[in-house]
Amino acid sequence: MTIGLGTYAFFWQWHGTASEPLGLVDMINKTAGWDVDLFQVCDYPLIETYDAEALAALHRHAAERGVELELGTRGITPEHLTRYLRTAEALGVTLVRSMIGADELDQAARLLEQVVPAYQAAGVTLALETYEQIPSAELVRVVEEVGSPALGICLDPGNSVARLELPTATVELTAPHVRSIHVKDFTFSRRDGWVGFTFAGCPLGEGLLDHQHLVGTVRPDERGINQVVEHWLPWQGDSATTIQTEDQWTVHNLSYLRSRTP
């Protein structure tokens, strides 16, 4: 099992709010600087504009910094996933995370059956993420219906809370099929005036994620499943404070995970 970082650990630093947004090379450098050797390029549309030369340069830079790459996108049309498979091959990636759109669920197995054999032949795993638009039971059904060793689940138990799924239930339901884990803690807090709640991120160990239950059920160490750190960090009032807090959360979460890794 490897502890990694994803683009969502740098969300406020590349997503247009920073005065000088980070590029992928910058994020890889920060990842390596924290002695982390896995970086997931997740929901980063600019990667789709990279030509073969740019992809080769990115792959080379990551290798020089000792950082393995993963990819993440959304959607399961064969055309889209084939494009990401080509990108994965160019970057030496062996896992691509994607998400089934709500409008794709009825035909999900049929769509995936058209492209998953190519992933399997290339030695690349496709991991479909748990999230609020798709019931976790339906996600499991699709994975089992396709029945390929190259298709599994990217477990993010916080996402499915919006479907009123308990995180521990999501973990237990999906565990046999998990191939990747997005790790972030989360909590509810009362809004001003006690009118409703805010569901947002917090540092690992301070919220509702039962990480001990997650690793005990999924067994990432035994199964070689990577844990990729992400954040749901609310805006902190200004860019500098938000970015500083984001990095503080990253350092905390890496320490938390490393202290619990054999």
From TrEMBL:
Domain Xylose isomerase-like TIM barrel span(s) in chain numbering:
49-258
Q: What is this protein called?
A: Sugar phosphate isomerase/epimerase
Print the keywords alphabetically.
Isomerase
Q: Name a GO molecular-function annotation.
A: isomerase activity
